[in-house]
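Hey all, quick one. A colleague (J.T.) asked me to put the iron/sulfur cluster job into the tracker so the inputs and the structure tokens live in one place instead of scattered across chat threads. No bug as far as I know, just bookkeeping. Sequence used:
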Amino acid sequence: MTDHNFWGLLDITYIYLGGLGVGAFFVSAMLLLLGRNDRTHFTVARYGAFLAFVAIVAGGILLPFELEHPFRAWRVYLNFAHGLRSPMFYGAWFLVIFGAISFFYALTFMRRGASAEDDLARGRKVLAWLGLAFGLCLGLYYGVLHASLAARPLWHSPVLPLMFLVSAYMSGAAGVLFLFAIFHRKNSDAEVEKRFVRRGHQLLAWILILAGIQAVLVFLYVLFANAFGSGDQSAAIQILLPGGAFATQFWLWAVVLGILVPIVLAASFGVSRAERAPVPWWVAVVVPLCVLIGGYVMRYDIIIAGQITHPMGL
Amino acid sequence: MKDSNSKPDISRRAFLGGGAAVTGAGAAAALGGGVANSAVEGGAKKHYVMVIDARRCYGVQACTVACKAEYKVPLGENRSWVEEIEKGNYPNVTRSFLPRLCNHCDEPPCVPVCPTGATFKRDEDGIVVIDKDVCIGCKSCIQACPYDQRFLNEDTHTADKCDFCIHRVSQGLQPACVEACPSRARIFGDLNDPDSEVSRLIATNKVSVLRPGYGTEPNVYYIGADHTGENDHYAEFSYVDVKTNRRFAERR
Amino acid sequence: MTNRRDFLKLGAIAASAGLLGSRARADARLQSAGVHAGPLLHGGKDFSPITYEERKAVPSACYQCVTRCPMVGYVENGRLEKISPQMNSIRTEGTLCAKAQAGVNHVYDPDRILYPMRRVGKRGEGKWKRVRWDEALDEIAERLKKLRDAGTPEKFMFHYGRMKSSTSKMVKSVFLATYGTGTIGDHTSICEGSKWVAQELSWGGHYDNWDFDNTQFILNFGSNVFEAHTNHTPVAHRLARALVERNLRMITFDVRLSNTAAKSSEWIPVKPGTDIAVILAMCNVIVNEDLMPVEGREFLRFCRVTRDVGATTEEKIAALKAHLAEYTPEWAEGISGVPAEKIVAIARELASKHPAAIISYRGPITHAFGVEAERALQMLAAITGNIDNPGGRLKAVGPKWKYPKGPKDKPKSGVLEVTKGFEGQVAFPNHHVSNQIFDVIREGSFGRPEVYMWYKYQPVYSNGDCKANEEILKDESILPFTVAVTPFYDESAALADLILPEATYLERWDWEDMVSPNQVPEYYIRQPIVPPMGETRDFGDVVCDLAERMGMPLGFKTKEEFVRLSCEMTPEVKAAGGFEYMKTHGVYHNPQTKPVYYSYLREIPESDYKAEDVIYDVREQLYWNWKKSKARSREEALEKGYMHTKNAYKGYVGQRIGDKVYRGFVPDKVNKTGYMEIYSELMEEKGFKPMPSYYPIPEHQELGKDDLILTTFKVNVQSHSRTQNCKWLTEIYHANPAWINPETAAARGIANGDLIKVKSEKGEITTKARVTPAVVPGVVAISNHCGHWKYGRYASGSAAPEEFRLNEKDPDLDRIWWSDDRGAHPNWLIPNKPDPIGGEQRWNDTVVKVEKVAAA
Ligand code: SF4
Ligand code: SF4
Ligand code: SF4
Ligand code: SF4
């Protein structure tokens, strides 16, 4: 069964970390841009900026290990002659561009005394916009890389890039929420702390919305393969459906744990109690963990199962 | 342009979508037409194809082993192999053979995905090759081939597959498997030459290609091939067994 | 689509223009590979796929199987890289099979042995020391001299397997004859001995060629031409051509859907060992319905169908009718399971299509009374006029090499009679009863060899009852000193006292002589493509060396010299340019030679049959030269008569038929007449029916409810026991699951892929089940290539002792992906039992029980 796993754990981890980076940057940038010059927005955005950079670097370090000839990787970047139709050519460029943006972006948060209104604020915002754009490209790329391959019917779905993207944003929000839960110390200023509490609820709300979208996407993904896809696709999707080899894993871990549990928890502890109390710390830890684990399993299942399944007939 | 006109009719061909068309290539076409390729002697472009006459194939695997020997393909991998399709109910049982190799597709999905340009389709003869000194081993092309023809060569650490024996063909010899087939079930030649044996065979026989629905426009044509797959089991026969001689015993 | 291609073009141009240099440091050979203008050639050259440089061509001959196809080896930097067909061969017409291509693997098998090995531990313990060739040969010479000086040279037993052509002549006719032992065993009775015996009893010297190029119909009983056969590729590719290009009909009877059956127009399943019933019934239909084609009727003139050689055609037909009366299609259906209507229909079709090639091989033969199946087939071919005619069943022709015979004075050889089975066990041990040799030696009443040497033979693995073979070979009280000559550390060599490492066939010399499917002889040679590796030596050179050491020089010092001398002595080859010509071209045939048909019709000139010492046998109406027989005087010869004079066949001159004397069907090995003998007096004298008859296989008559019949078979990418070290072949075929019909499997609760146990009186093996409708119910079919326990890491996982083997780096050793299922060897189950007529090992008669061990 594993004979055809040309893309294995390394790749999965790389695109997972890449997605986490993209997502964390998204959350950070959104907070920064939405928060005007609010201090709590800035502080939480900082978690996102750092997480984005760390994740993207970690992923970037893994990348060459998946190549059989890592020292030839430069060829990709200079391949304007033939690469224009290769997703990986774009992916490679997106990765370095996004990596550079997230580096400089994170840098702007690093300075001693960095604040929402310091002299880097403008540049930071420009970087945030750029990072959002390239992050979107990179986030979509991870799905497109797979979805463009007709020879892998399980991947060959227009929904897949969106699923990967939403999952990336979700895991970014989860990651930031997690860091926030761990590192945030109660602010002595009650007014400020109230706003911090709101940030927690805000993140939880985002997770809730994204998870909702993701649930719809998963439904569409299965529906698309079954109803609108080719015979190969409906044959392939059986591996994820009840009775299929990956069904339990996929539905239990990726869907129930990674999407439904966060929805339930976020709905019951987040939105409903928005203004009353801070997000209970266990919720702020458990929801992110569920999202992060579920997101990993989702990628794992789709990438591995996508290589086990294959075109039918000859 | 010339090549696509000379493409023969395929009995099993059914266009499902036909793949995404590339737009904005008008300028490219204008450019492309004017430049001569230095590698083409006398300016005659070839359109190399292989015809596999499954009626002649008796499954003796000389092709498989000749190919292994030609390239010292590592154990566990094959550039070419032969599938056996056994079906029916006792005593009406049949077994037929289906040699497989890279189709050197006219619309090869393996080519555009390559981020380095290591994989390319030669303009002068249509052979899809891999430059093993350029390939980074990203495995995209392996994922992209709908015929499971590509593998990672453990010795070169690059993608690998059949290259129609370009070192032989470019120097005037038939591919190794063609030379080796004792039954002359593999016939190789130039489809641009209307007098070639392949042109004649394709013109006078009902031919088929594999997975025509993928829009890959294969250049390996089969005569008299049985395309039964394991999942035709329930539909037509109560017993169907498809075996490949590969490590991946399952047909993909 | 056009757009897309042009778009790619743009890329190509950008690259060739050196844009961005992404192809600059690429594989230069690939990037600059041009397009060849002319037509592409089939063979004749070879290029390296890395450097594109041309390789050196060395014409030689394959030896992966007994077919011995001419081929060409290609060498690069002193290494054999590739084996390709010999395009100039008229036998193969430029074809080879998979096994040939993988020959390269023999030379570079990491487990081939390179140095002489002397046992130091107990037999079979695997403890060895390296000895010099000098020591090894001195020891053997010493022992042989001692035996010779004691007047018992026959206590040196030489046992060979696939030893053919020049090596056979050199070793057997020269070396062993000069030394004086006649204790020489072969392996024909584990191949097809009974087929040859049947032919010797009917049309004389053996080997039937099948004229697929000219036939109109093919009727096949149990030959797997497309996968095995002793003239495999030369006939298989012709058969494929006939089937496709001429749309011929071919009908195959087999217990299993072999690839041959699969490519036939019809596969007709038949119960094991019952083909003969079908054949007899077809004869019945043809004579009773008076369908005999005119060619058959005419041919009857050259057949002996009654005791009286002078019978008329009408009398002959009457005799046939009488004999065949009981063999009705309905009777045959009851025995074989083939519907009577089918038999009738095919018999009618056969009679209506002329010429037809009626072919057979081990399917019908390797049973009790297998001789009768082949004799019946000869009868069927005879009455339909398909003997030795274009398109029919032919007496094969091969090249006639002349060769140096060694010293003139050879001693009279002594013989231990261990090769012909026990007293009265086999009526015609013309080709020995090699399956009984170990038993006879163990029993001891014909004496035991003191030195037992085997060559190109695998006594342990290749015979039935592997367990007994191992025991005997291990027992020093039975075989006190044993020598294995082999390139590989196989199951038998592992039990030897001394191993002499042979060069592989790709490093050796030979002239070759296998028959031609097109009836025109082809001369060809084998020459070293690369020099012998390590200290390995051509066994031909070794016997010369041994002879020198024993003070009996043979007159040539090497096999190369022997081959060179043979080339100069053989007129046709000499005329073509002799040794040098053969070395450059590999093959030669005389373009003037016409295909040989109707050899029996040649008239014998009076000068020949009236020559001195030639006498006329009134009863058999034939001429023979009594001097060539063992008769001591003309009077004795006349008195005893042709039939009862030992070796009278050697003096056969011609058969008188009507008013002419014909060459007829020249006898070999037995004193039959010059007729095609459907009626065999020789059989009659041994207590069998003279006409081909049905004898039930005893074991199959009272099968229990659980009993199945074991059938073994061969596949296309392996030869019986010798190719499993070839990694490229074993990668394709390494496990041999047991074929079982779904009905048979269901009755035992067995599903496809289940682990099963197959048990016989001799033992049991565990293997996987392959549940398939491609086999007759009541049968379990297991190929006989797998389940090696020695023979190197590719074959069995068991390495040859490290100090002796080729320790070249072979990364493929770490890539063996089939270690968890290497199949099982069926010979552990099969007792060594001979056909009582021809001595053939009864491979396909064993009764077994099958049970499920574990689900898949
Ligand atoms: S060598 Fe020819 S006959 Fe044999 S399997 Fe290959 S294509 Fe078929
Ligand atoms: S068969 Fe596969 S590898 Fe060959 S050209 Fe087509 S897509 Fe590419
Ligand atoms: S593995 Fe090599 S040939 Fe294939 S896409 Fe990647 S770089 Fe190109
Ligand atoms: S039939 Fe095959 S193995 Fe036998 S001699 Fe010919 S090529 Fe070699």
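Adding what we noticed when we looked at it: Chain C has four domains: 117-192+402-504+537-570, 208-395, 599-685, 700-854. Residues 584 and 658 of chain C are 50 Å apart (CA to CA).
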